[in-house]
Amino acid sequence: MGGSDARALSRSLLDICRMRKLTIATAESCTGGLVAGALTEIPGSSDVIDRGFVTYSNNAKRAMLGVKASTLDSFGAVSKETATAMAIGALERADTDLAVSITGIAGPGGATPGKPVGLVHFAAAARDGRLIHRECRFGAIGRSSVRQRSVVEALRMLMELARGPKPPAKVRRESISRLRPRAARTPTRRASERRRTTAPVKPSPKKP
């Protein structure tokens, strides 16, 4: 996965957003603005892309995106909780329809126990309340490769939200009728059914 993947995804994403009149904001840490760069490299992207936040430090995450200090202290900058707070913060501050966030360890340094090089957390949020999170462990594949693959993953998540929620599956009428429990036919019920379906017998007239 490289630049060609990011360009193709960027074009498709912009086309869908343009068609559905959606706007996008990005919030990036380890990618340093590469997602916003991939999107704005496409001519005409200004009708979709609103802004990009590059929040490399914890202070920037707090000041620009409203990530709580308690979240950073409890879970760390590279975590589901921080990525989610970054995406929501970008969505609220930019007032866009969609937002994506990335926070991770591109390497070669920065690893901590339980958080190796190549660990990246993503979150994407939509104005209608949808929120998705992904954790990718790319491994020690090199700083540049981690960042490039992160860009592609973020674009895919935006594409998922831009396409909209999946419509509920239609249930066929016959399927519904099969699910309804059928009442058991007891002897009493069978007798009452026979009485309803059998015509009454008229008594024969008496002879004088």
Description:
The chain is an alpha/beta fold. It has a single domain (3-162), classed as Alpha-Beta Complex (Maf protein), CATH 3.90.950.20. Helix content is 45%, strand content 16%. It contains 8 helices and 5 strands, in the order αβαβαααβββααα. The chain has helices at 3-20, 34-40, 58-65, 69-75, 80-94, 143-162, 173-179, 187-197; strands spanning 24-28, 49-54, 98-104, 119-126, 131-137. Strands 2-1-3-4-5 form a 5-stranded mixed sheet, with helices on both faces. Strand 1, helix 2 (34-40) and strand 2 (49-54) form a beta-alpha-beta unit. Helix 1 (3-20) runs parallel beside helix 6 (143-162). The protein is globular, with a radius of gyration of 30 Å. Residues 170-181 have low confidence and may be disordered.
Short description:
This protein is an alpha/beta fold. It has helices spanning 3-20, 34-40, 58-65, 69-75, 80-94, 143-162, 173-179, 187-197, and strands spanning 24-28, 49-54, 98-104, 119-126, 131-137. The longest helix has 20 residues, at 143-162.
Looking at this protein, list some descriptive labels.
208 residues, alpha/beta, Maf protein, five-stranded mixed β-sheet, 8 helices, 5 strands, 16% strand
Mean pLDDT comes to 87
- The proportion of residues forming helix, as a percent range, comes to 40-55%
Unreliable spans are: 170-181
Strands ordered across the widest β-sheet: 2-1-3-4-5
Supply the CATH class. Alpha Beta
List the helices and strands and how they pair.
Blueprint (H helix, E strand, L loop, with lengths): L2 H18 L3 E5 L5 H7 L8 E6 L3 H8 L3 H7 L4 H15 L3 E7 L14 E8 L4 E7 L5 H20 L10 H7 L7 H11 L11
Parallel strand pairs: 1-2, 1-3
Antiparallel strand pairs: 3-4, 4-5
Helix pairs in contact: 1-6
